[in-house]
Structure formats: structure tokens, C-alpha cells
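tool_call: predict_structure(chain=1)
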Amino acid sequence: MTPVGRICRMAGLSTRQYDEEFADREALLLIAVYDGIHHQALRAVRTSLAGQRHAGLGARIAAALRAYVYSTAADLRVGRVPTSRSSGSARPPRCTGCAGAGNGSR
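tool_result:
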């Protein structure tokens, strides 16, 4: 079995679904990296907001933005990860674990 076949089996997908979703393994890896960056930033924002429960709206927004920026700027390699399109992929990366996480996604 090929590595892609093993990935599909572990994820419960058919190889056809994989081919439709990802241009290649690099596109899959990029989405995994993007998900990790996004989840790290989301954790930082949630932690920051937990300490701002009684603060005003402006203070909470500032704290959330500061946490997001510090989280994503702490590692300069993060800036090299494209966040709108993966090379060769017809779709932008998306967070696979964020549906219903209270992040404003609809």
C-alpha cells in the first residue's frame, strides 16, 4: 500500500476523495501545518481572553489581537506559510478541527 493509501485508510477516506481534495502530499502537509499554526493562535487568544472576563470590549479586542500577533510572530517560519492558497491546490487551506469551535465560522 502506498503512503497516500495508508493516509486515506487511517482517515477513513477513499483515494478518490484524497485526489479531489489535495493536489499532492505537499498540499496535505501545508494544511496540517496551517492547522497547527491556527490552533496555537486560537489557544493563545482563548487564554488571553480568559483573563479579560471583566474588561471592556476594547480591552478584550486588544488582548485578543495582541495574543494572536504574538503567537503567530513568535516563530518567523510561520510567516513563510501561505495562508490563502497552497501551491498547486485549487482550494485554500482550511482548519479541519474548527467547525463549531466558537470561532465565528458559519
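agent: The first helix runs from residue 3 to 11. Proceeding to next step.
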